Amino acid sequence: MIGIVMGSDSDLPTMQGAADVCREFGVAYEIRVVSAHRTPQDMAEYGMSAHTRGIRVIIAGAGGAAHLPGMLAAYSPLPVIGVPVQSKALNGLDSLLSIVQMPAGVPVATVAIGGGRNAGLLAVQILATSDPELQTKMIAYKQGLAEQSRAKNEGLGQ
Ligand SMILES: Nc1c(C(=O)O)ncn1[C@@H]1O[C@H](COP(=O)(O)O)[C@@H](O)[C@H]1O
């Protein structure tokens, strides 16, 4: 149901966070390397066909001149979540700016640099709007997050 794509296998440490979330919530996903630069035909094919294969949200991560999320958004009717991967030369600022500044009419929901996990959570939240069982899991997840945060007070020694 969630398509996780990345420009290179070197993006995997970042994009693994999205896959981890899918597994935690029991949501089916696929993970693939597709590049707007290196395999443009595969990228176009992926963008045009993902919705016909049961994919409902695309998460696309790329670094540097990160055109992959925007190009997938150009081809696909699905919501695309863009993950700027931290780059060596410019620390991911290049990735962020390449992904976030989309022209009107072709949105990409951009998460923080390195935000693979948040991208996964956002994708699950999108699916949960039409899936009450998943919605219940998301509510429980958020409650768990709140409990962990409150528990930090106990370590403050006051
Ligand atoms: N930004 C893109 C795209 C694209 O946008 O299509 N394809 C590969 N890349 C990026 O190039 C970086 C270096 O790739 P290599 O590690 O393979 O040299 C990766 O972060 C990848 O996402």
Describe the structure.
The chain has 158 residues and is of the alpha/beta class. The chain has a single domain (2-130), classed as Rossmann fold. It has six helices and five strands, in the order E-H-E-H-E-H-E-H-E-H-H. The protein has helices at 12-25, 40-49, 68-75, 93-100, 116-128, 132-151, and strands at residues 2-6, 29-33, 57-63, 80-85, 109-110. A five-stranded parallel sheet has the order 2-1-3-4-5, sandwiched between helices. Helix 4 links the parallel strand 4 (80-85) and strand 5. Helix 2 (40-49) packs across helix 3 and helix 5 (116-128) packs across helix 6. The chain starts with a strand and ends in a 7-residue tail after the last helix. The relative contact order is 0.17. The model has no long low-confidence stretch (mean pLDDT 97). It binds ligand C2R. Belongs to the AIR carboxylase family. Class I subfamily. This is N5-carboxyaminoimidazole ribonucleotide mutase. It catalyses: 5-carboxyamino-1-(5-phospho-D-ribosyl)imidazole + H(+) = 5-amino-1-(5-phospho-D-ribosyl)imidazole-4-carboxylate. It comes from Oscillochloris trichoides DG-6. Pathway: Purine metabolism; IMP biosynthesis via de novo pathway; 5-amino-1-(5-phospho-D-ribosyl)imidazole-4-carboxylate from 5-amino-1-(5-phospho-D-ribosyl)imidazole (N5-CAIR route): step 2/2.
